[in-house]
Amino acid sequence: MEYVVGPVIALLIGMKFTAYTAKKTEARVTVIEEKVVKFEAEVPKKLAATMTPVAVAIKKLNQQVGI
Q1: Structural Rg of the chain based on CA atoms
Q2: Considering the entire predicted model, what is its pTM?
C-alpha cells in the first residue's frame, strides 16, 4: 500500500509545483514584454534628444573650420 500512495502523493505535489512555477513564469514574461514595449517606444525619443545637441555642435565646428 505504501508503495503506491507515496509515489502518487509525490506526483500530485510535483504537478502542483509545476503549475505554480509555470504561472509565476508567465507573469514574469508578461511584465518583461510590457517593459520591452515601453522601452522600444522611448528609445527613439531619447536618441533624438541626445543626438540633436551633438549635431548642432558638429555643424558649428564645420562652419568654423570652413567645411
Answers
A1: 29
A2: 0.57
pLDDT at site 2:
77
54: helix, coil or strand? helix
Q: Biggest alpha carbon distance in the chain? A: 94
Tens-digit pLDDT profile for residues 34-49 = 999 999 999 999 999 9
* CA-based nearest residue to 1, from 9, 16, 28: 9
| C-alpha 28 chain-centroid distance | 9
Q: How far is CA 63 from CA 52, 56, 59, 66, in A?
A: 17, 11, 6, 5
23-58: buried (b, 16+ CB within 10 Å) or exposed (e) per residue?
A: eeeeeeeeeeeeeeeeeeeeeeeeeeeeeeeeeeee
